[in-house]
Amino acid sequence: MTKYLREIEISGVILMFIGCIMHRFFHIDGGVYVCGMGLIIWLLNLIYKAFHWKEYERDNKQNIVMMIAVIIMLFIMIFSRL
Question: Per the structure, how many domains does the chain have?
Fold first, then answer.
């Protein structure tokens, strides 16, 4: 399992990206489901790494920083529309 964690994470991110492109630019409703599947795959990978903190400490810290950055961008987008 640990041998394939990077590939699983990248496939989840690619699915999220494809789903967002499908929904945003091609107006395909199924893009939301593709994005959701990618998000679930990525979150399962994150949960596995969180339970094995010592082994994946560097990755976990990068993921925390990335999540904080995304949350800040979401707040900026929400408040810019008000």
Answer: 1
CA-to-CA separations, 18 to 31, 47, 62, 78, in angstroms, rounded: 7, 23, 23, 23
Whether 49 contacts 59, CB under 8 Å: yes
Q: What's the rounded mean pLDDT across residues 37-53?
A: 93
Confidence band for 2, pLDDT divided at 50, 70 and 90: confident
CA distance 9 to 14: 9
Beta-carbon count within 10 A of 28 CB: 14
Domain hosting 56: range is: 2-80
Residue 38 in contact with residue 8, Cβ under 8 Å? no
Name the DSSP class of 3: G
CA dihedral 19, 77, 49, 32 (to 10 degrees): -20
- Cβ-based neighbours of 69, under 8 Å, separated by 6 or more: none
